[in-house]
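Moderator note: this is an archived Q&A kept for reference. The question asked for a predicted structure of one protein chain; the sequence and the answer are reproduced below.
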Amino acid sequence: MTPAMYTHSVPVLKQMLTALKTMLAQASEHATAKSIEPDALLQARLFPDMFPLIKQVQIAADFSRGIAARLASVDVPTFEGSEKTFADLDALLTQTLAFLDSVNADQFEGKESSEIVLRPGTPKEKKLSGQTYLANYGLPQFFFHVTTAYAILRHNGLAIGKRDFMGTY
């Protein structure tokens, strides 16, 4: 039987990142078809104090890698965060999906009660059980950034809807 911590994380993360990857490809095509400077979409925000699209995608990828790595007890892979184009974001999501494919369900066995330490050694250090980390921190953070990326694209004229957001499941 597949551990619930795996079932409720890796397949969900892969589904949503794959959908985001598809929406970003549509956004790139949309920019080309409408003669929109790609940076106009990549730097678009919902509100001035929010991160732009490019950063929303980077953070969603970061959270997905962090969730899977921490629950699988492997090092969290880091990337530079130097993406500047739709092609760069596509490559980031491809690498992130490959990492998610590299963890296996057995690594998640019994992780519900394992201790996850966020920001170790800093004044913001927080210790959570694996279950709390996944359900109350990791997934909500991940979904916030994926949803915000979707909303930025939709707000900027991309003809996408709920089916695009959900992807294939």
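Archived answer notes: The chain has a mean pLDDT of 96.
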